[in-house]
Amino acid sequence: MKRRNRIGGLLRYGIPQFKLEKHIIDRRLEQMSAEGVKFVTGAEVGKNVSVEDLRRDFDAIVLAGGSEQPRDLKVPGRELNGIHFAMEYLPQQNRRCLGDTIEPEIEILAIGKRVVIIGGGDTGADCLGTCHRQKPLLRASVRDHAEAARRTVAAYSLAFVANATAHRRCA
């Protein structure tokens, strides 16, 4: 069961199209459907689907949720407008690539802006690649949070906190 309107979770919405083409996810979903797996979208357990109903209707329940809970940073300027978590920014671009419309009041774009990416790893690289494709005026990537505080995020018009997931990858 999925909260969003498409199956694929963080693979579909969190990993940019340039890194993982979504037809690969679609191909796997088609295979799983052909094998009898039933996917339900727009479902959120505890909200519009009860745990009791699931326990009654199924022999087994698999919890396979990715973390979209950000880990905030305590740096000067963090409270300013234009500073976003990576998982606010990346899914929007994936939705655009899928043909969805983003509501103007929540739209996050790097076009023509001075952008700094705080953090690194895969998420930082994903923000950098996405940002690059949106043609910013200037972009910088800062791995060290203390360095970001020294540079002061206020000098930039848009910033993404890239090491923002609450979990770590398994090796």
Write structural notes for this entry:
This protein is of the alpha/beta class and 171 residues long. It has six helices and four strands, in the order αααβαβαβαβ. The chain has helices at 9-13, 22-34, 51-57, 86-97, 121-133, 145-151; strands spanning 83-85, 114-118, 138-142, 158-161. It has a four-stranded parallel sheet. The longest helix is centred in the first third of the chain and has 13 residues, at 22-34. The protein starts with 8 loop residues before the first helix and ends in a 10-residue tail after the last strand. The model is unreliable at 164-171 (pLDDT under 50).
Salient structural properties:
171 residues; disordered C terminus; 4-stranded parallel sheet; alpha/beta; 6 helices
Brief overview, please?
The protein has 171 residues and is an alpha/beta fold. The chain is 33% helix and 10% strand. Strands 1-4-2-3 form a four-stranded parallel beta sheet.
List the helices and strands and how they pair.
Layout: H1 9-13, H2 22-34, H3 51-57, E1 83-85, H4 86-97, E2 114-118, H5 121-133, E3 138-142, H6 145-151, E4 158-161
Parallel strand pairs: 1-4, 2-3, 2-4
Q: Helical amount among residues, as a percent range?
A: 25-40%
Low-pLDDT segments: 164-171
Counted beta strands: 4
Which shape, going by the Cα principal axes? elongated
State the end-to-end CA separation: 27 Å
Strand content: 5-15%
Strand order of the largest sheet: 1-4-2-3
Task: Please trace the helix and strand order, writing H or E for each element.
Answer: HHHEHEHEHE
Radius of gyration: 18 Å
Oligomeric assembly: single chain
Q: How would you state the average pLDDT, rounded?
A: 80
User: Would you tell me the structural class of the helices and strands?
Assistant: alpha/beta
Number of helices: 6
- Largest β sheet strand count, sense and barrel closure: 4 strands, parallel
